[in-house]
Specification:
This protein is α+β, with helices and mostly antiparallel strands and about 450 residues long. Helix content is about 35%, strand content about 25%. The protein binds ligand MV4.
Length: about 450
């Protein structure tokens, strides 16, 4: 049994985990940096330990400080949230060495999915559709030229240690490849301390759709349908929903089935997400697997009426999965409310929240660590709230979202609320015609 959980994170996700622990009767330990002393996760945890100064590398990324905080408070498990320690296989090994339960997958599963080329080859072997390209790492330029001639241009050079759009470069021709290959290797080495690249044919797919999977330590794996995440800007998701307006029952079954096979191939347990690109003909291609709970997990929760974090903790404690596969019951949408100025290229807008009123009412959920008087530090990401609605239909979820955005009052910092209000009345969004390049092609103010 898990009696006390240390939450190795901050902001809304730390609070989300604390709430789940309280409902399970589990004690909580918050850790915080000097910049987060006044954060809500510190106030709502049973105990709190300061682990260092504001910069992440000196606090939330400092493994000895986190482990020490767990040891002195006698925590028997650590929940990493997302980001920071969530996909750090060495951290999981260290937890194991100290007899602390890491609330997440095994170090081995994280390692294998963290190497994007190993991940792709593992998925291909498990029967998951992948984009044509190199098998494993491309040795040198000669090898690259040969592979590209086989698959045809344009291609994508991708760093095996990259992911989430980092360390990726499009190449149109052999002459371009001759310049780009060495540069891409040097860049990958500089950014990720690993120069290895793999190659894929460029796919003209327009949607980012991901499948939620969930496994336990007894070998059971299920899928919990898809999330539509195509409304993004520079690889930052802004709006997510479940289900996707373009996925039919048959495709959901197919994508779910292969995703479960993929997760089983790495002995996966806990919640995980398999990301796909989906084209206009509804072909789907594996991109990467995220071995963590994700920011957008609430739309899956609201679409199905379940609690993914409570299940994650129970599964980490060794319990069998209690969740069951099910068709979506509701439509859910999430808008990320960031402290950014959408009028000025989404520039970060940290500072003091002078007025804060969160919306409520039927079908409305606000996940936030912010409150009136809270100062948003400039050291971390700019997410201040996730506004989630659920409706019987997509159009009801959209109507609720517009109503909730209209009630949301935040003064003192700029936020993405005006952008989201525009999107909720945008005919393209309402029709479900969204793709990953939409916000590149269109200035949001003129849609
Ligand atoms: C691609 C691609 C086209 N062809 N791979 C970007 C994030 C990472 N998960 C994979 N990404 C892409 N990989 C091939 N072979 C286009 C993208 C891509 C993208 C993917 C999902 C969501 C938004 C995107 C925006 C630009 C490019």
């Amino acid at each position: 049994m898990i009696k006390k959980v240390l939450i190795a994170n901050r902001s809304e996700i730390a609070l989300r985990v604390i709430r789940a622990c309280k409902e399970l009767g589990i004690s909580t330990v918050a850790v915080y940096s000097e910049a987060d002393r006044e954060s809500l996760h510190v106030k709502f945890a049973d105990e709190a330990v300061c682990i260092g100064p504001a910069p992440s590398r000196e606090s939330y990324l400092k493994i000895p400080s986190i482990i020490s905080a767990a040891m002195i408070t006698n925590a028997d498990a650590i929940h990493p949230g997302y980001g920071f320690m969530a996909e750090n296989d060495k951290f999981v090994d260290i937890c194991d060495d100290h007899g602390i339960t890491f609330i997440g997958p095994s170090a081995d599963a994280i390692r294998r999915m963290g190497n994007k080329s190993v991940a792709k080859d593992t998925m291909r072997s498990a029967g998951v559709p992948v984009v044509p390209g190199s098998l494993g790492v491309v040795k040198d330029l000669a090898d690259a030229v040969k592979i590209c001639n086989e698959i045809g241009y344009p291609v994508m050079l991708k760093a095996v240690a990259g992911g989430g759009g980092k360390g990726m470069r499009m190449v149109q021709s052999e002459s371009e490849l001759k310049n780009a290959f060495g540069m891409a290797q040097s860049e990958a080495d500089a950014f990720f301390s690993n120069p290895d690249l793999y190659i894929e044919k460029l796919v003209m797919a327009s949607r980012h759709i991901e499948i939620q999977v969930f496994g336990d330590k007894h070998g059971n794996v299920i899928h919990l349908n898809e999330r539509e995440c195509s409304t993004q800007r520079r690889h930052q998701k802004l709006i997510e929903e479940a289900p996707s307006p373009i996925i039919n029952e048959e495709l959901r079954r197919k994508m779910g089935e292969v995703s479960v096979k993929g997760a089983k191939a790495v002995g996966y347990y806990g919640p995980g997400t398999i990301e796909y690109l989906v084209d206009n003909e509804l072909n789907f291609y594996f991109m990467e697997m995220n071995t963590r709970i994700q920011v957008e997990h609430p739309v899956t929760e609201e679409s199905l009426g379940i609690d993914l974090i409570k299940e994650q903790i129970m599964v980490a404690a060794g319990e069998k999965l209690t969740l069951k596969e099910s068709a979506p019951k509701f439509h859910s949408i999430e808008c990320r409310i960031n402290a950014e100025d959408p009028e000025n290229n989404f520039r970060p807008s940290p500072g003091k929240i002078e007025v804060f009123h969160a919306p409520g009412g039927h079908g409305v959920r606000t996940d936030s660590h912010a409150y009136q008087g809270y100062v948003i530090p400039s050291n971390y990401d700019s997410l201040i709230a996730k506004l989630i609605t659920r409706g019987a239909t997509r159009s009801e979820a959209i109507a609720k979202m517009y109503r909730a955005l209209d009630e949301f009052i935040i003064e003192g910092v700029k936020t993405t609320i005006p952008f989201h209000k525009k999107m909720m009345t945008n005919p393209d969004f309402i029709a479900g015609n969204i793709d990953t390049k939409y916000l590149e092609r269109n200035d949001w103010k003129s849609i």
